[in-house]
What does this fold into?
Amino acid sequence: MRLAIIGATGSIGTQALDVASEHPERFTVVALAAGSESERFSTLRSAHPHAHAITGGSREDLVALVEASAPDLVLVASTGLVALPATLAALRGGAAVAIANKETIVAGGELVIAAAREAAARVGTSVLERLRPVDSEHSALWQCLAGEDPSSVATLWLTASGGPFRERGAAEIAMATAEEALAHPTWTMGAKITIDSASLVNKGLEVIEAHRLFAVPMAQIHIAIHPQSVVHGLVEFTGGSTKAQLGVPDMRSPIAYAMGYPERMATRVRSVNLLERGTLSFDAPDLVRFPGLRLALEAGTRGQAATGTLIAADDVAVTRFLAGEMRFGGIPALIEAALTQFAHAASPRDAADVLALDEEVRTFARSWRPSAALARGTHA
It folds into this structure.
């Protein structure tokens, strides 16, 4: 299988290459893209001398990379919307896409799902064979839904560790520092997704993503706080049964499932030992202490302009928080201001509309000023 990776030096891209290296008979790396030149990327160029390789590529450059390398599978692990056109080009060009980029599904919305539907119809497979979720929670749901009749699904459950602020009060969370927010108790991830996990905005994005990937109404998708991070997703069925997917918190497992689908590939990931784990607990999320989650869930019910606004505003808010421009509570405050301003805009009709809205929201978010209490530096 010819494999292209967009976001090759990030956490997901690196682990995907590790998975591919365990199965050299199955994968040939034909394209690599990274946001910037680095020693890591130079090493990748040397390891894959025949692969097309670019750094700092524009949206157009990434489309050209996909078209020139003719991959069978494109793993999209970049951040933001830079890979949205390349994702659409891959689907329309006959490649399957393993998607680890929430922004593409949340902001790209029906454009991406429609392209996946058309691609599936052309090759006679399912939408999820063409557009394969990589996030651990969506992979869990995908695995639980395998072989099931979609009409028998009652509820989807996504789990969340609760992040570093699971037991803190609302006022303390709002005043938190970057150092505190980056101290995730379970997963080791990049800074952006770690902050989104701390605010639980990430979980709201995942609900929207599940809604679109699995064609299940937002009202039938729920969240459970599960600090042990053993159960990644559950599906309730109309007959009264519930299926759950369990695993250690290691992204190589869902990456391998997406890359090898419909087969399960062997990995070095160990299985869960429930006897060692002991008690597993589940609680409801608190939308008062975590207003970012509330705003994300509300955006998911308001259409594609709202979800596109959410993505852009959150990205700028996290960047400004990490830069020391505002306290943690500034993140949901900025998101709310942006949604008030842009959520009622016309729904994007194509990729150009999605990208235009994204830039408009980002311009607003960069100039937005937090309240005096939230404007203090975030670093201790």
